[in-house]
Automatic annotation (TrEMBL):
Transmembrane segments: none annotated. Its EC number is 1.17.99.6. Belongs to the QueG family. This is Epoxyqueuosine reductase. Cob(II)alamin binds at R55, D131, L155, L166, S213, C238, D239. Monomer. GO terms for cellular component: cytoplasm. The gene is queG. Its cofactor is [4Fe-4S] cluster; cob(II)alamin. Binds 2 [4Fe-4S] clusters per monomer. The active site is at D131 (proton donor). It comes from the Bacteria. PROSITE patterns: 4FE4S_FER_1, 4FE4S_FER_2. [4Fe-4S] cluster 1 binds at C185, C188, C191, C245.
Length: 343
């Protein structure tokens, strides 16, 4: 059967989860996206609003699409994702960004699968997507049976916990849908309770403007003061709500060499990160997703962590950046120096 062949090939290519859905989403997905946008919870991610129609309706993105193959790649860590949070002289980089950019890893496998599908069924048309396209990947993965959207809004899998990257092959092949994933959160609320910035107004609704992932990666300009202290030493992304999910205990550590943490990014020293210039920043983050945010935004985050470190030895580092040519960096440096002085 066509689906079995595709599933087997996806597994051979290294995907950890495979499911099939029709190229449609339930009406609630659109309604919830509209509410998220209407309440401004996307912050400055204007690109979410610009192509909302295509996000909510796969066929508005590609009218010929009949079915969707939803694919998951595990990045379940062998290490404790929260271990660095208590090392205040170090920066904590989110698990997903400690080595190669997952977009590259996933996209090459998605393309390989798509090429194989076209070679096997020459009448098939295919398009591949991962993350940046106007696609609602989590509701689609739930429709395809990969798991369910947990209360932290991410897709949770019984086998891989919260640690799956998602990607899709849209196709003109007609593939019967798998049963959708059923909600298995029950009365658990661990992910909601641990969130340092209280970013969930209610279960399954995230106010991105409060999320440390948004603040450290997407947000330009100064980080609002109310969120600086709760950020602690998280300098790129945040894993807290993922890491506490009890379903992670079934996840086996991933075996993708590109996702094993680089020694230089595992628990880097704040004092060294703050001193990076553009060239040093680009060299340290070669092929890493961190590179995308640029030196200035990154050093801004590092300075917030320095301000939170309580370490008087880092005060001189902050002071050295108080006149940085980038006004956002300079402001964060002054804030950090003052905070350490008060400490
Ligand atoms: C924008 C975005 C962000 C934003 C906003 C996140 C968000 N939750 O919306 C920010 C920058 C904060 C972010 C952070 C992260 N992200 Co992100 N992000 C995206 C992106 C590009 C779009 C997500 C989206 O459409 N949001 C809009 C909202 C409205 O949609 P939604 O979250 O699906 O919302 C649904 C629920 O709220 C639900 N809902 C609401 N009420 C109710 C009630 C009930 C009863 C039910 C059942 C459902 C329900 O309905 C909505 C629609 O179905 C996707 C890639 C993509 N193209 O899909 C990656 C993606 C979601 N991100 C991902 C990751 C890994 C992360 C981080 C873990 C990174 C990190 N370590 O820092 C964090 C996690 C933060 C969190 N708790 O969500 C992965 C998640 C993989 C997975 N297993 O789910 C994705 C899929 C990328 C990928 N290709 O792998 N992200
Ligand atoms: S990623 Fe961190 S800040 Fe964002 S919702 Fe999860 S716990 Fe909260
Ligand atoms: S931590 Fe609990 S509530 Fe949150 S996604 Fe996991 S099972 Fe659901």
């Amino acid at each position: 059967m066509t689906k079995d062949l595709i599933r087997a090939e996806a597994q051979r290519l290294g995907f950890d989860a495979v499911g099939f859905a029709a190229a449609t989403l339930p009406a609630e997905a659109r309604a919830r996206l509209d509410r998220f946008l209407a309440e401004g919870m996307h912050g400055t991610m204007g690109w979410m609003e610009a192509r909302a129609e295509q996000r909510a309706h796969p066929r508005a993105l590609w009218p010929e699409a009949i079915s969707i193959v939803s694919l998951g790649l595990s990045y379940a860590p062998a290490e404790d994702p929260l271990a660095n949070l208590s090392r205040r002289d170090r920066g904590n980089i989110s698990i997903y960004a400690r080595n190669r950019d997952y977009h590259d890893v996933l996209k090459s496998r998605l393309k390989a699968l798509a090429r194989w599908m076209v070679a096997t069924w020459p009448e098939a048309l295919v398009k591949v997507f991962v993350d940046t396209a106007p696609v609602m990947e989590k509701p689609l993965a739930q429709e395809a049976g990969l798991g369910w959207q947990g209360k932290h809004t991410n897709l949770v899998s019984r086998q891989h916990g919260s640690w799956l990257f998602l990607g899709e092959v849209y196709t003109t092949l007609s593939l019967p849908a798998d049963p959708p994933g059923a909600d298995r959160c029950g009365r658990c609320s661990a992910c909601l309770d641990i969130c340092p910035t209280r970013a969930f107004p209610e279960p399954r609704r995230l106010d991105a403007r409060r999320c440390i992932s948004y603040l450290t990666i997407e947000h330009r300009g100064p980080i609002p003061e109310e969120h600086r202290a709760p950020m602690g030493n998280r300098i790129y992304g945040c894993d807290d709500c993922l890491a506490v999910c009890p379903w992670n205990k079934f996840a086996r550590a991933h075996s993708e060499p590109g996702f094993a943490p680089r020694a230089s990014l595992d628990a880097p020293r704040l004092a060294e990160l703050a001193m990076l210039d553009d060239a040093g920043f680009r060299a340290l983050f070669t092929a890493s997703p961190v590179k995308r945010i640029g030196r200035d935004r990154f050093v801004r985050n590092v300075l917030v962590a320095i301000g939170n470190s309580g370490d008087p030895a880092l005060r001189a580092t902050a002071q050295a950046l108080a006149e940085d040519p980038d006004p956002v960096v300079a402001e964060a440096a002054r804030w950090a120096a003052q905070r350490l002085e008060a400490a």
